[in-house]
Amino acid sequence: MRKAPGMNFNFSELVTVAFTLFAIIDIIGSIPLLIALKEKMGGINEVKATLISGALMIIFLFIGENFLHLLGLDKKSFAVGGSIVILFLGWKWYWVWNFLRAIRMPVPM
After folding, report:
1. What pLDDT, on the 0 to 100 scale, is given for residue 81?
2. Are 102 and 92 spatial neighbours (Cβ–Cβ below 8 Å)?
3. What CA–CA distances, in Å, run from 40 to 37, 43, 59, 62, 99?
4. Residues near 78 by beta carbon (within 8 Å), at least 6 away in sequence
5. Is the pTM of this model over 0.85?
6. pLDDT score, position 55
7. How does DSSP classify residue 73?
8. Neighbour count for residue 41 (Cβ, 10 Å)
9. How many CA atoms, within 13 angstroms, populate the side-chain half-sphere of residue 5?
10. Rounded distance, CA 90 to CA 50, Å?
11. For the segment 52-101, what is each residue's pLDDT rounded down to a tens digit?
């Protein structure tokens, strides 16, 4: 099979990215948040949300590296920055959860 110029497809990188996204997105852990949003907003248009997020993923698949280059970042710097953001978000929720538990308020799940 002939490859398109500039398209080097590596299956191991695809698997790595897929598992990384699965770990970051954590859809199982987001289910309570999505239920609460749906109750407050009166409904979520699942098809529209899926199409928009799918389109964004496909767009960034092709222009993501160029966009990072435009911002003056490389992939490794972006990964480190994203990891720090996720660390701080987890840290914040840990302390919020402990604070709510300490004052005996219901903990949001």
Report:
1. 87
2. no
3. 5, 8, 31, 35, 24
4. 68
5. no
6. 92
7. -
8. 9
9. 0
10. 25
11. 988 998 998 889 889 989 999 888 888 888 888 888 888 887 787 777 77
Q: How far, in Å, CA of 21 to CA of 53, rounded?
A: 13
Q: Which stretch of DSSP H or E encloses residue 17?
A: helix 11-25
Structure token pair of residue 2: 């002939």
Q: Is the Cβ–Cβ distance between 86 and 25 less than 8 Å?
A: no
- Alpha-carbon span 54 to 49, nearest angstrom: 8
- The predicted-structure confidence for 11-67, as pLDDT tens digits, reads as follows 888 777 777 777 667 777 777 777 777 788 777 788 888 899 889 989 988 898 899
Query: Cβ–Cβ contacts within 10 Å for residue 55, how many?
Result: 10
